[in-house]
Amino acid sequence: MKISILKQLESKIHGEVFSSKEFREFYSVDASSYKIIPKIIVVPKNEVDVLNTVKIARKRKISVTVRGAGTGLVGSALNSGIIIDMKNFSSIRLSKNQVNVETGVIKGNLDKKLEASKKFFPPNPSIGSFCSVGGMIGNNSSGSRSLKYGSVIDNVIEITFVDGNGNKITLPKNKKIAKQIKKIVNGIDLEKFPKVSKNSSGYRLDRIKTENDIHKAIIGSEGTLGIILSAKLQIKDKPRKQILFVAEYNSVIEAAKNCLEINKTNPSAIEFVDKTTFDQIKSKFNKKSKCLLFVEYDEKISLNEKKLKEIITGKIIKKLQTEEEIEKWWRYRDSSLHYSLKSIKKENRIPHIIEDAVVPLENFPKLFSILNKLNKKYKTKSIVYGHAGNGNAHVRLISKRKKRDLIKKIATEYFDEILKLGGSITAEHGDGLARSEFIKKQYGSKNYQAFKKIKKYFDPDNILNPGKIITSKSSIIENLEQF
Ligand SMILES: Cc1cc2nc3c(=O)[nH]c(=O)nc-3n(C[C@H](O)[C@H](O)[C@H](O)COP(=O)(O)OP(=O)(O)OC[C@H]3O[C@@H](n4cnc5c(N)ncnc54)[C@H](O)[C@@H]3O)c2cc1C
Predict the structure, then answer these.
(1) Does one domain contain both 72 and 187?
(2) Can you give the pLDDT at residue 483?
(3) Measured from the CA of 218, which atom of ligand 1 is nearest?
């Protein structure tokens, strides 16, 4: 008699295996509005457990989806088969300018360890300390300081993972695999990749210039190519001094225009918040203000201050120099998502779907014009904040009309306009359930074929997080919880 998948996993796994209703409910949601109930949850104790889970799943034709901290905004870590939770993979080994981390490490723990040596890992998602290193690599995350220091893809040296064949692979070390993947990459149409400073859509084959870059195919792959066990991250010395300016603008478009000039002064961050956020900040603002820009420098402070004052078109209202003050104001900016939720009645919230597009900075003002047009057409309102220096706007839509079709319509039109501006449908949150169906449009069929070849190479039976990145199905309005 054939034993059940659950029994087989229970007999092979040294860690824990769960299938009770409570656990399946817990793992059915993340920070998105989607919900998918999985069948089984595996919490592996070691890498043999991960290998065995994949091998069993492959034989028994059930999916395996890896989960970090579950803070993703588009349901990337949700699926119906096995969910594998990497929380026991928590070791951190620090050397001079690198750190070896297992992927269950929570960002806050990594930050603490690095801080003791006056170092930092640059990508800093606004979720702060709560996300995992695995999730950050899975989504190619970034944050305010990615303007100067790049996204995860710019700061990872090596990745060790288990692919869908059940093989443990280290890239770029494994030269045989690197050669085979590079061959696929040679066939891509680079012109169809957006020329933006951050991009988490599809597979980032555009970043593979030599075989030494092959691990970049895994970064941003949302658990569809492999379950990452550990990674070697590049770390930097903490800047000795920082200065943060907060400036008010009477026009959102004016602030968006000004970002291009400010960016030329090499700031470590330029962030944007609209009235929804600053209405929640306990400070006095001009009644006419429509938005704020946060501009930070972490080198050549006085020279950069002088340069900024020559080109800024808004009014500087804060010049913050102590660590305490700077942190306090960054907390306001990082709370924008929370403030946006606080300010909209639950019944008027539209799920995150168009919340993360990015355009070349010179087109950033046009992104706001597009939003205004869509808001008029569909009688919606929007709250915007985001990583302005990168041309990356986080948009929260508000509407009384809770129609699924409306969401799909708005998303399709918005993404079409973003593509016309040379942008990407997602800068840092990934494709997940909201955007995977738009990837072919984003990259064109030649590149999509290359993505499919990469998927087939690492996961020929499509067991790793199926339905994400490579899919022929529409999932944008399926499995939305409150619809
Ligand atoms: C309030 C708020 C603010 C946010 N701000 C930002 C921001 O500024 N910048 C930003 O980039 N993101 C932001 N996010 C989105 C999210 O927090 C980040 O993308 C985060 O890095 C995801 O990490 P996680 O551990 O929660 O991943 P999960 O949600 O658990 O997973 C994300 C993806 O990574 C995959 N994954 C997880 N672990 C592994 C692994 N070991 N191997 C392979 N794949 C893996 C999953 O399968 C999934 O596809 C924000 C979210 C919230 C709720």
Answers:
(1) no
(2) 57
(3) 43
